Amino acid sequence: MLNSLILYALDFNIGDKLVPNVWEFLTQLLAFLVMVFIVYKLAYKPVRKFLEGRKAFIKGNLDSAQKQNMEANRANEKAQKNINQSRKEATTIIMNAKRQAEEERIRAGEETKDELAQRRRDAEKDIENQKKQAMKDVHDEVIDIALKASSSLLSREVDIKDNKKLVSQFVDDMQDNEEEVGH
Would you say the pTM of this structure is higher than 0.70? Predict the structure, then answer.
């Protein structure tokens, strides 16, 4: 086997294989250049055009998404501002309602106090009027009793008008003396 390899190597012309054939080289080079041209015309331009279109499509989608994201952020900020404004308004309304309720409670309390004070004054006036009426009634009754007593004691006819005047004066003097002693 080794012998056959050596024979094959000796039979093989190494010199011819080391130096290329010029015509074969030029033919292969020309074929390669034609293939490069055909691939460039048929494949490279359409692929490049497709890739540029794809790139533009992706860029358009990214731009559109970015624009939509910005619009969504603006809408979100606007909605947040509206929510905050609504919360402020709600807080203001609640505070005003509480203040008005407190004012109404105070006003109702004051009205109740005023009404109670007025009722007390009216009651005191009624009591005073009833007291005065009772004093007058007692005064008149005392006068009538004194007149009857004086008429029966004196057994003489005295003018009723003069008698009432004298008794009234006597009762008034008694009341004045009573008030001086009471104070």
Answer: no
